[in-house]
Design brief:
This protein has helices at residues 2-81, 87-168, 173-185, 208-216; strands spanning 191-195, 198-199, 221-222, 229-231. The protein has 241 residues and is mainly alpha-helical. 11% of the residues are buried. The chain binds zinc ion.
């Protein structure tokens, strides 16, 4: 049993290194995805802003045409004013001109506002385009670095896995199954040391008889509280500093 426990411990060290490798790979991939999401959001925003600019430009053209028409009508009314024969007609024409003047002023104001909006959209678009280009470059750089690192990590992972297979050959199947099962439930550690009468995994005090047996190292003992496989360092000849 001592030999089995020693092999399990070595396997666990291998597995923990493997887990760390996997976490690193996941982190890199998550980070890349985050960057891509941000870029996509910026691109969507830019599209939206361009649509708004397009709408503003169209509206501006429409208002400019309206202004031109109103000014033209105003000009014509002014000409007609010279040739009216009755006071009634004169008053009606004057009223119409007053309305046209108001309409012209209103449209001019709207046009000014639309010009401001156009400038605003244009400067926002320019800013976003710069940001997108910068981010894109940054992502390309990160991606290049990450790809290199991922290749390296995946290589390590592959080596570790074949090494793991070799290491687990000497361990009895039921013990290995138990180890794998506990590992999935206990965040990667399935075998822990028992020290000064308690489990180092969950720090529960162990029954004294159990602790004595552990020190002998002849049977497979699991912690009654956390179910991890227990070992006693001295029993396995490990010098625990
Ligand atoms: Zn425990």
């Amino acid at each position: 049993m001592k030999d089995q426990l020693t092999q399990l411990l070595a396997l666990q060290n291998r597995d923990l290194a493997l887990d760390k490798c996997q976490v690193e790979i996941d982190q890199i991939q998550d980070q890349l995805q985050d960057h891509k999401d941000i870029l996509q959001k910026l691109i969507d925003d830019l599209g939206e802003q361009k649509n708004q600019l397009q709408e503003t430009v169209e509206l501006k053209a429409k208002r400019a045409e309206e202004l031109r028409e109103a000014e033209e009508r105003h000009g014509k009314s002014k000409e007609r004013l010279m040739s009216v024969s009755s006071a009634k007609e004169y008053n009606a024409l004057e009223k119409e001109m007053e309305q046209l003047k108001r309409k012209t002023e209103e449209t001019r104001e709207q046009l000014d506002h639309l010009k401001e909006r156009t400038t605003h959209h244009e400067s926002e678009i320019a800013k976003k385009e710069v940001m997108i280009n910068e981010l894109r470059e940054q992502i390309e750089q990160t991606e290049a670095d990450a790809t290199k690192k991922l290749t390296d990590l995946n290589g390590q992972l592959e080596n570790a896995q074949s090494e793991r297979e070799k290491m687990s050959r000497g361990i009895q199947k039921p013990i290995l199954r138990r180890y794998d099962f506990i590992r999935t439930r206990r965040g990667g550690t399935a075998i822990v040391s028992a020290k000064d009468g308690h489990c180092e995994g969950c720090f529960m005090r162990l029954p004294p008889q159990m602790y004595i047996e552990l020190q002998r190292g002849n049977t497979l003992i699991t912690c009654p509280s956390c179910q991890r496989i227990l070992y006693h360092a001295a029993a396995l000849g490990i010098d625990e500093a």
